Amino acid sequence: MPKDNPFPAAVLLTERYQGHGPTVPPQVNSVVEHLLNHRSVRAYLPDALPEGALETALVAAQSAASSSNLQVWSVIAVKDKERKARLAAVTGNQKHILDAPLLLVWLADLSRLGRIAEARGLGSEGLDYTEMLLVGVVDAALAAQNAVVALESLGLGTVYIGALRNDITTVAKELGLPPHVMPVFGLVVGKPDPARPTAIKPRLPLNTILSHEQYSSANEAEAVEAYDALFKDFQRSQSLPEEGWVARSAERVGTPKALTGRHVMKEAIIGLGFKLK
C-alpha cells in the first residue's frame, strides 16, 4: 500500500480540475488518493535512489498486465552521466535528465521472443507484423506506469521523456539495442527538490473523455473552452507563459516540423529491423 497521503481526495480533485471537477466518489481510498496526487517532477536533488528502490519499481512493473503474458518489453537503467548527457541531447538537452540520478529507458522488445524461437528451431513470422510492435509499446507503457506508482509511494518523483523518440536510431545505437527493439520513452527518477515544488496539472473535464455506449463529442466544444481558460490560469499561477491548452496542442500537431523529428518514425522503426507488415 502507498504511504498515507497528507492531502485528502477533495483537495487533490480540486487541484486536478481547478475546482470544476466531480465531487469525491464514495469509493475513494488511499490508493486512489495516491494516484490523484501524481505530478510530473522536473527539479531533482542529485541524491542516489534508496537501496532497493529500482528493484521495487521493477517488480511492480512486472506485475502489470501483459498481452498473452508475452512480456515483450525491457528497460535499461542509465546512471552514467556522460551517457545521460548524450541521450539528453536527443531530447533538446532537458536538464532534469542530467540532474536526476537515474534515467530508465523503456523498450518494446520483440527480440527476446525471436531468440527463444530461433534457439528451438521454431518460426517467428508473427513478430514481423505491426500488431506485435503495438503489443510491445502497450506492454512497456503499462509496466512503466506501475513503476511510477511504486516510485511515488517511496517518496520519489518521475517524469516521462517522450522526446527520446526524436531520434530512436541514435538512442538505439547509444544503448546497444539489437534489431527488433524500439525505445518507447524515457523515465527520469529521483528525489524531488523541495525548494522547487511541482503542482498538479489540470486535466480535461470528465465529460470530454467519457462516452457511454458509443463515442460522443456533444459536450466537447464548451468543455474545451472552459478548460482552456482554466489552463491559462494554471500557467499564470506557476509563473509560466500564459498559453492556452488549445493553442499549445494545435501547435504541437500543426505541422510535421512540430513533431521534432518524429515525422520519420515509420522509417526509423523499419531501420531498427521491424517489418511492420
Indicate the topology:
Blueprint: H1 9-16, H2 30-36, H3 53-61, E1 73-78, H4 81-90, H5 95-99, E2 102-109, H6 111-119, H7 130-153, E3 157-161, H8 168-175, E4 181-190, H9 206-209, H10 220-237, H11 245-254, H12 265-271
Antiparallel strand pairs: 1-2, 2-4, 3-4
Helix pairs in contact: 3-7
Describe the model.
The protein is an alpha+beta fold and 277 residues long. 43% of the residues lie in helices and 10% in strands. The chain has a four-stranded antiparallel β-sheet. Helix 3 (53-61) packs across helix 7 (130-153). It is globular. It starts with 8 loop residues before the first helix and ends in a 6-residue tail after the last helix. The mean pLDDT is 94.
Please give the count of helices. 12
The dominant shape is globular
Mean pLDDT score, rounded? Answer: 94
The description of the largest β-sheet is:
4 strands, antiparallel
First-residue to last-residue Cα separation: 43 Å
Strand runs, count: 4
Spatial sequence of strands, sheet with the most strands:
1-2-4-3
Radius of gyration: 20 Å
Task: Name the structural class.
Answer: alpha+beta
How much of the sequence lies in strands comes to 5-15%
Percent helix among the residues? 40-55%
Order of helices and strands: HHHEHHEHHEHEHHHH
Low-confidence regions: none
Labels describing this entry:
277 residues, alpha+beta, 4-stranded antiparallel sheet, 12 helices
